[in-house]
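#structure-requests
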Amino acid sequence: MSAKRGFASDNNAGVHTRVMEALLSANGGHVLAYGDDEFTEAAEARFREQFGEGIEVFFVFGGTGANVTGLAAITRPHEAIVCAETAHINVDECGAPERFAGCKLLALATTDGKLTPAEVEPLLARAGDQHHVQPRVVSISQATELGTVYTDAEIKALADFARTRGMLLHVDGARIANAAAHLGVSLRELTTEAGVDVLSFGGTKNGMMYGEAVVFFDAGRARDFKFTRKQGAQLPSKMRFIAAQFDALLAEDLWLQNAAHANRMARLLASELERIPRVKITRRVEANAVFALIPREQVASIQKRFFFYVWNEETSEVRLMCSFDTTEGDVLELVSVIKESVG
C-alpha cells in the first residue's frame, strides 16, 4: 500500500523512477568500493558538464554531512561562519557545524532569509583582534529556508564582497535546483560564474533516495578533503549507489524537470489558497515552499488529512512543501480540505 503524498517536506517524497532504475542498474556484480568505480567516474563527469572542468566533487550521505565537511575544509577553529538566523546550519543541524568544524556561527536576523554584503560588513569590525573569532565564511542557503531565492547577481555580490575581505562563500544548495528553475538560469551561472567557493549540492529533496555532493570550485581547497570526509563519517563504501543516482539526476536535465514541477505545484497551491478569505500567504513563493497563515483552531484537523509542519506556533504560520511527485490533484485536494475546515 502506498502512503498518501503530503506537504510536510520534500524529504518525504519517494524516488523518481529514472533514479530507481539507475540504482537497479548499478546493482549488478561487484565493483571496487569507495569511489574507484565506473559509476562514480560517470557521475563526476556529469558534474563537470554542469559546473565546469575545474571543479572537484565528492559524494556524501546527506545534507548535514555535506555542509559540515565542506565548511570544515575551509575553516580553522578560531574562525567564524556568517549565516542567516534561519539557516539550516544554524537551526536544524544540532550544532554539528560547530562541533565538527569547531567554528562559531554568527547568525544574522533577516526578513527573507537572505544575506547582503551590508548586513555582513559590521561583523568584520574586529578583524585581526585576537580576542574575537575571525569571520572566514559567508554561508547562504539556496533556496532559503523561507522559500526565497538569491539571484546570480546577488550571489556574485556576496562572493565579491567576501573575496575582497579574505573570506569565502559557501552555498547550502539542498534546493539549488529549485532556485535555478525559478530563475531560468544554469547551475553554472548560480555557482561557478557567480564566484561560489564551496557548494553542498542536494539530491535527496529532488528525486534521489539519498546522497549529496560537496563541490569545490578551486581544486586547491579540495586537496585534503578526502581525509575530512573520512573523519566526518561521510565516505560511502558502496559509493556507486550515490553516484548512479546523480548520473541519472543530471542526465537530460532530470534535476531541472523535477525542480520546475515542484515549483509549479507551489505556485498553483499559493494561487488557490489566495482564494480562501481566512488564509493569508505570508512570503514570496519563488521555489517549492508556500508559507501561509491558517486559523490556529483548524490546523490540527487539516493535519489529520494532509500532514504539514507549523513554522511559527505563535502566529500559526504553516509551511507547505511541494515535491517532484506532487500532483495537481494533491494540491486541489489539500485546498479543498483547508477550505472545508476554515470556511
